[in-house]
Amino acid sequence: MSLKRKIAAALLATTATMSLASCGGKDKDTIVIGATNTEKPQWDVFKQEAQKAGLKIEVKNFQDYNIPNRALTDGQVDVNNFQHMMFLAQYNVETGSNLVPIGATEIYPLGLYAKDAKSVEEVAKAGEVAIPNDATNQGRAINVLVQAGLVKLKGGQRLTPTPADVDPGASKVKVTPVDAAATATAYLDGKPAIINNDFLINAKIDPKSAIAKDDPKAPQAQPYINGFVTKPEHQNDDKYKKLVEVWHHPEVQKAIDESTGGSAVHVTMDGPQLTDVLHKTEDSFRKENNK
């Protein structure tokens, strides 16, 4: 289902949520943050450190990933923190919105794992890598292999390449798309595989054992940097910028490391820098999807 359809499907639920939220009102000095998975320990630490920094915040949890941006657009939250720039770019392009990042938080790398290989060279000898077949992770997985020097694309860099874009003659491995859950199974069966964090945890694979993973500094990985997001008129608000500073407090970072098994890569990038990444991602998304 396209992002646009998902947003439409969630709209009814969003409206009900917004109506309830608006009844209570809010303190004008309180920054309301929309997020998902707020049960993770870093959020409690973040709230404590925000209070110490003199910020009044309220964190609203959303179960559906399509609602926090709508809530921000409609003014029911002031900021959100749950998404990477690829997701935001798709939202902005599909809905005609212009939400912008305040600053980066982290990137959750997509890694290459192999039981019987310890290096990229050994993976090349295996000759094949299993990758997730869903649209978002498939393109990202191929770009991880591009960054690792295992795959070359026919037409140069693409935001969301498919197996059809892989140049088999110039590549060192063949990519085999499988269901995302089956990537961990492929790994356990001895085949190199690109596996995302959720399935790593379920399969009890150590994230630190990745042979290669996203490099936040590489152009192919930058669309997957997460960040605090708001409306353009608030991007340079000092109170909102302070949220990013607090998120990078050592105690918050420690909590993130503990909850992700050390797999999160912390990224320091300010609003204008991350906005540049966002705009480039939006342009590429429009071009590749004829928007």
TrEMBL record:
What is the recorded membrane topology of this protein?
Lipid-anchor
Gene Ontology terms: cellular component: membrane
Q: Source species, please?
A: Corynebacterium heidelbergense
Which protein family is it in?
Answer: Belongs to the NlpA lipoprotein family.
Q: Where in the cell is it found?
A: Membrane
Q: Does the keyword Metal-binding apply?
A: no
The protein's name in its UniProt record: Methionine ABC transporter substrate-binding protein
Q: Which UniProt keywords apply?
A: Lipoprotein, Membrane, Palmitate, Signal
Q: Source organism lineage? A: Bacteria, Bacillati, Actinomycetota, Actinomycetes, Mycobacteriales
Q: Does the keyword Lipoprotein apply?
A: yes
